[in-house]
Amino acid sequence: MTAVSLGMPAVPVEPLAPRRISRQIMVGNIAVGGGAPISVQSMTTTVTADVNATLQQIAELTASGCQIVRVACPSQDDADALAIIAKKSQIPVIADIHFQPKYVYAAIDAGCAAVRVNPGNIRQFDDQVKEIAKRAGDAGIPIRIGVNAGSLDKRLLEKYGRATPDALVESALWECSLFEEHGFRD
Q: What is the DSSP letter of 3?
């Protein structure tokens, strides 16, 4: 039988550019940053509240080589499902929080490996940063800060005229600084 090339690169692949030096954090049992190997992360497309469908998709992603999975959490039903999903998933689960700070707390309490927040789409988020930082820090759970064009602060839109890369970076750095003010650096 003749081997067929699938077009996959030979291992190890030469890096396209040198990696930026960064701090290492742990997302469950997966080291991220700080010289750790690059991990494969994906996101489910199921409604998270459909626990069976979400766990099935996580199993399929895991079988394909995924090491970290993100699940959307835009509703209370989704937040309620996180504990079962985090417990039964074979890989670390990141809860992608939408709209309500209470879902951040639900994800921490559920045992998710990390939380992803977009402060621009969470009402009264800045008022809760101190408590979120404390709870995540106490639980050893890292927080991923996300930003997008649709949730930029009006002041940044006025400053830059539109959603530019510089505006997005400034937004993310600002949100990170709010956590750092409370001693949270993960």
A: -
Q: Identify any residues that bridge with 69 across adjacent strands, giving them in sequence order.
A: 42, 93
3-state secondary structure of 148: coil
- Helices of type H across 75-126: 76-88, 101-110
Burial 132-149 (b: 16+ CB within 10 A, else e): bbebbbeeebbbbbbbee
Each residue of 81-129: pLDDT tens digit? 999 999 999 999 999 998 889 999 999 999 999 999 988 777 677 788 8
95 close to 103: Cβ distance less than 8 angstroms: yes
Counted residue by residue, the chain has a size of 186
